[in-house]
Design a protein that fits this description.
mainly alpha, 2 domains
């Protein structure tokens, strides 16, 4: 008689879609926070890119759940999130996510409508037919552009921004809760996991803006050039966020590995297995190098800064990969680490992730055609020049 002994967890259940989803939601939260620097906290240096950042936060969040739908294999299963499990709401981060993923984009959309309402009024005045009706809808039924109307827009937009800050933090923080609540996983189970995800999200979101803002400033505004001052400000922010990210990761690893129970030996084995990728690529190349650029005169060189932005985005994506996929590779009953290689095509494949990025790019183009971000950006730069700032 032959006996077959196999692991309880022979496969990795979450594939490449999940770290991509975590990256999208995190970058969305960061873009929203950066927009709030101007809309909520009145930091004028970020005013020219605040509206653009808000729109990026919206499209990133809209595109993010598509990763989850693909990961489900059967798209119809998405309805289970809405119909079942509400009795466990208080202890289920996934149920928190349902509420957050519905409320957060709606709030961003209405904040954007109030910020851009005066520009929609101008477009409605010169439009005809369907375009006039469409812009009239976007003005929320208010066509006044007096100072009192503008003050009301600012006040409502600021209030929505204030509400949106904790929402943005919770939208990405709940993803950290999902991992941190798993007792059986030595890499995930820490109350620092939501903070880790938020800190690294600020890095990826800032890096994402460093990548996309120059493209649209150069190609789609009448300025026809990249505002170097804005890029330098973002570089400084990026370096600061990387410092915070590294400090929290240091606290996480120095508590988890020396002071954990028997699980620490699994963590030793995990980091030994992935040592070169984690240390040399994720930390040194993708975090330390952009940090040095942000804190030094190298940030004045546009190409160096742009490459630093790309590296930071890649580094945080790798952190999501190593945390989500790597965490699932740690064995529970099997004699060795589990392996995972995403398929090239099909569901939960490299092609599906690239398709999701394609949808994100399409959404960015669609939203930026509707919202007059270029007019708002150029007007903000003009005001800053006139005030000598």
């Amino acid at each position: 008689m032959n006996t077959l002994i196999s692991s309880i967890t022979p496969n990795i259940p979450w594939g490449i879609d999940v770290p991509n989803y975590f990256w999208f939601t995190g970058s969305s939260a960061a873009a929203f926070i950066i927009s709030s620097f101007a809309h909520v906290f009145g930091m004028e240096r970020y005013k020219p890119i605040a509206g653009f950042s808000l729109l990026m936060a919206f499209v990133l969040l809209v595109a993010a759940p598509l990763n989850l739908i693909d990961d489900l294999k059967q798209p119809g299963r998405i309805f289970n999130f809405f119909f079942y499990g509400w009795e466990n709401f208080t202890t289920s981060p996934m149920k928190w996510g349902v509420i957050l993923l519905l409320a957060y984009p709606v709030l961003i959309f209405f904040e954007a409508l109030y910020i851009y309402r005066p520009y929609f009024v101008k477009k409605m005045a010169v439009a005809n037919g369907f375009a006039r009706s469409f812009y009239g809808f976007l003005t929320l039924g208010r066509s006044g552009v007096t100072q009192a109307d503008l003050d009301k827009d600012h006040k409502v937009g600021k209030r929505l921004g204030i509400i949106g800050i904790p929402l943005a933090l919770c939208v990405h923080g709940y993803t950290g809760y999902i991992l941190g609540a798993v007792h059986a996983n030595a890499l995930w189970h820490t109350p620092l996991m939501p903070i880790l995800f938020l800190a690294s999200a600020m890095v990826s979101g800032t890096g994402f803006l460093i990548i996309v803002i120059p493209i649209f400033q150069k190609l789609f505004t009448s300025m026809g050039s990249v505002n170097q001052e804005t890029m330098v400000d973002l570089a400084k922010l990026l370096a600061l966020f990387i410092v915070i990210d590294l400090v929290i990761r240091f606290l996480w690893l120095t508590f988890a590995m020396p002071f954990n129970g028997e699980e620490k030996y699994l963590l030793y084995a995990f980091f030994e297995l992935n040592f070169h990728e984690v240390l040399y690529v994720e930390y040194l190349l993708c975090l330390i190098v952009p940090m040095i650029v942000g804190f030094s005169a190298l940030r004045e060189n546009f190409m160096v800064l742009y490459i630093a932005g790309i590296l930071s985005v890649v580094g945080v994506w790798l952190f999501r990969w190593n945390t989500v996929i790597g965490g699932q590779s740690i064995p529970k009953t099997s004699p060795g680490f589990l392996s995972y290689a995403p398929d090239i095509v099909g569901q939960s494949s490299i092609f599906s992730v690239l398709s999701n990025w394609g949808i994100l790019i399409a959404l960015i183009c669609f939203i930026l055609v509707i919202f007059p971000w270029d007019e708002e950006m150029e007007e903000s730069y003009s005001k800053r020049v006139n005030h000598g700032k």
